[in-house]
Amino acid sequence: MVATLLFGGNLSDQSRISKRVGAIAPSATLAVSNKAKELKASGAPVIGFGAGEPDFPTPTHILSAAVDAISDPINHRYSPAGGLPELKQALAMKTERDSGLRVSPDQIVVTNGGKHAVYNCMQVLLNAGDEVLLPAPYWTTYPEPIGLAGAKTKVLHTDENSGFRVSVDQLNEAKNENTKALIFCSPSNPTGAVYPQEEIKAIGEWAVENDIWVITDEIYEHLVYGDSEHFSLPALVPEIQNRCVVLNGVAKTYAMTGWRVGWIIAPPDVAKAAVSLQSHQTSNVANVSQRAALAAVSGPLDAVQKMREAFDRRREVIYTMLSEIEGVSLLKPEGAFYAFPNFSDLLDRSFAGHVASTTVDLAEILLEEISVAFVPGEAFGAPGYARFSFALGDEDLKEGMQRIADFLQG
């Protein structure tokens, strides 16, 4: 069931669908989240660790800005395809405040969420035959828009021993004459890894030396814990700025996943091309959402701090409870809101009469037997691992972890 759910079934007549779209793998994270919601709506006591979605409401001052925007007729009309000028100005100021990176509004393109930013970036930068270096584990969405642009993904594997961080040596070994870009994500989805400053700088300098683009995803910039810090790669390595695209959005930091506002920061020619593309795709992002995003990025970070404190508390709980399960190993998450345990030692065992040969199998067993949902590592290019979001209520988190512990050790 879960295998079909995650990786799609067969179309009765594949020729009816274009080859490029037919090759797309459905979003595994959304599939798991939607399945959990369906089961819960039917009365099953499902606890879902699948969605990368804060369980907090959007802060009140952002809601107020949206309510005011609804009543203003100016927001009932088309606006510039690349974003409201005032929002782009605010994003430039926010970027300098949070990252130390100084950019101009003409370098910013406001998109319909972070996924739209990823898609537009790949369409603008990549040609058929280009290769993109992608460290694994990776966010499940990255490979699909690369393929849709006619380019190829070259996966670079990392594991617990490397802290789920790619090295310059790996990059050197993987690059070739077709290498166009590197995707870089810190804090990482799905592993929670955060690259230290010196490693980010080294990767940026490597990209400069090799004339390779860096696409850096900074959407979890405010969600770091303990001694970990977020550093923006183009701020640390200014020489890369003419070959670097920053992806970001309001979804994670401000609990605004449903508002669908992301953005691209790029060299002016790349940003201009992205606006041209978007003018034929979607035109402007909904103006009410843009006004809400304006309030978010230009407002106080008090609510953000409270959410981060809650995530940090949950991080400690999920790390402790997973670590206590025999056969499970994991690194303590340093950022984002995901734990990424290794279940390899539990595979090929029988649980409640079912044998889990893969983490896809294990996900199916746990969903059916104890009503707990998570995303198997296969979705992130990391078989044997699993992603657990800890962006859910404290009691549900503890209950879900206890169910897993009792079942696997029963």
Q: Mind summarizing the main beta sheet?
A: 7 strands, mixed
Order of helices and strands: HHHEHHEHEHEHEHEHEEHHHEEEHEEEH
**What's the number of helices?**
15
Total strands: the figure is 14
What does this protein structure show overall?
With 410 residues, this protein is α/β, with parallel strands linked by helices. It folds into 2 domains: 2-57 and 303-409, Aspartate Aminotransferase, domain 1 (Alpha-Beta Complex), CATH 3.90.1150; 75-298, 3-Layer(aba) Sandwich (Aspartate Aminotransferase, domain 2). Helix content is 41%, strand content 14%. The chain is built from 15 helices and 14 strands. A 7-stranded mixed sheet has the order 2-8-7-6-5-3-4, sandwiched between helices. Helix 9 links the parallel strand 5 and strand 6 (213-217). Helix 4 (60-70) packs antiparallel against helix 12 (287-298) and helix 13 (302-323) packs parallel to helix 15 (394-409). The longest helix is centred in the last third of the chain and has 22 residues, at 302-323. The protein is globular. The chain starts with a helix and ends with a helix. Mean pLDDT is 94; it is low at 1-5.
State the main characteristics:
disordered N terminus, alpha/beta, single chain, globular, seven-stranded mixed beta sheet, Aspartate Aminotransferase, domain 1, Aspartate Aminotransferase, domain 2, 14% strand, 410 residues, three-stranded antiparallel beta sheet, 2 domains
